[in-house]
Write a structure and sequence with these properties.
Layout: H1 15-41, E1 47-48, H2 51-58, H3 62-70, E2 76-77, E3 83-85, H4 87-117, H5 134-151, E4 166-167, H6 168-176, H7 179-192, H8 201-214, E5 219-220, H9 222-281
Antiparallel strand pairs: 1-3, 2-3, 4-5
Helix pairs in contact: 1-3, 2-3, 4-5, 6-9
């Protein structure tokens, strides 16, 4: 039987996962989810703390396994330190565990009923890979919302994000509070241009909304504003980078010109002094 566990489509943007990706790239991302797969296969979703065995199974270096488990706050150890597990993973497994228990009880109840009626018919539990019932879907959805709120306390849930237009002030305050989006945009922008500093984000955001107001905009949907701002920020940083490069080239050119003038002046003066010394030695002057 093929089991499964839920995986958010934006898991890569979690703060802890971003830290893993910054250090180990896509390999670290893959190692993390392979460790979760091992937990899924383990009793009580816990794994023994033996990095060499895990490394052999995943075909990666044991030092990377140790780092991803211990250095990024993704896993928790038991009191005796012999086992580790993931609190967020365990929360995600609650709906699946409930489904399993409901189906087990339903199968047991059905078997008891058949036995009572003297029936020889047999049934099997519905495989977990089949489509869940409406009740199971609702439990999974509610659990995902709770996990999202815990991981992104300052951000806006996609299920309640208002896509309608709002005043520029309301739009500004809403997207400014979206911490997950801010961190993702800052990371990706800094990858392209190291001169960009996350501390400057708010200033750029204010500048962008002043631009909208100057252009006569009075309303904007948060989703559209985030997309528009990301494109504008990329262009703005590129223009500033080009301006800095142009200024530097101009300064370098002026410096080279001044250095040439200084070198020529020095050469002329040295030649004059040498000739003067020769004339004095000949008694001409």
């Amino acid at each position: 039987m093929n089991n499964y566990f839920s995986h958010d489509n934006n898991a890569r943007n979690d703060d802890k996962i971003i830290a893993v990706r910054m250090k180990y790239g896509a390999e670290g991302y893959g190692i993390y989810f392979m460790i979760l797969e091992r937990l899924m296969e383990s009793t009580d979703y816990m794994s023994i703390k033996d990095y060499n065995i895990i490394a052999f199974d995943l075909r990666v270096d044991a030092s990377k396994i140790k780092s991803i488990i211990e250095d990024f706050g993704l896993f928790v150890f038991t009191e005796d330190g012999k086992y580790f597990y993931s609190e967020s993973f365990n929360r995600r497994m609650i709906p699946l565990n409930n489904m399993r228990e409901q189906r087990r009880l339903a199968g047991k109840k059905s078997a008891e009923k058949r036995a009572k009626n003297g029936s020889n018919l047999t049934t099997v539990e519905r495989p977990l890979h089949e489509n869940p019932t409406k009740k199971e879907k609702k439990e999974i959805k509610e659990n995902k919302k709770e996990i999202y709120k815990e991981k992104n306390p300052l951000s806006i849930s996609p299920d309640i994000l208002n896509l309608s237009e709002k005043s520029l002030e309301e739009c500004f305050n809403e997207i400014k509070a979206n911490q997950s989006w801010r961190e993702t945009l800052c990371m990706n922008t800094r990858i392209r241009d190291r001169t960009f500093m996350p501390a400057d984000f708010d200033q750029y955001l204010k500048q962008f909304f002043r631009k909208l107001a100057n252009e006569g905009e009075t309303k904007k949907s948060p989703k559209d504003a985030m997309s528009h701002f990301a494109r504008w920020l990329s262009i703005e940083i590129k223009n500033k980078s080009n301006e800095k490069a142009a200024i530097k080239n101009q300064r370098d050119s002026e410096q080279r010109k001044n250095d040439s003038i200084t070198a020529i002046s020095t050469t002329v003066m040295e030649a004059a002094e040498k000739r003067r010394a020769e004339l004095e030695a000949e008694g001409i002057i």
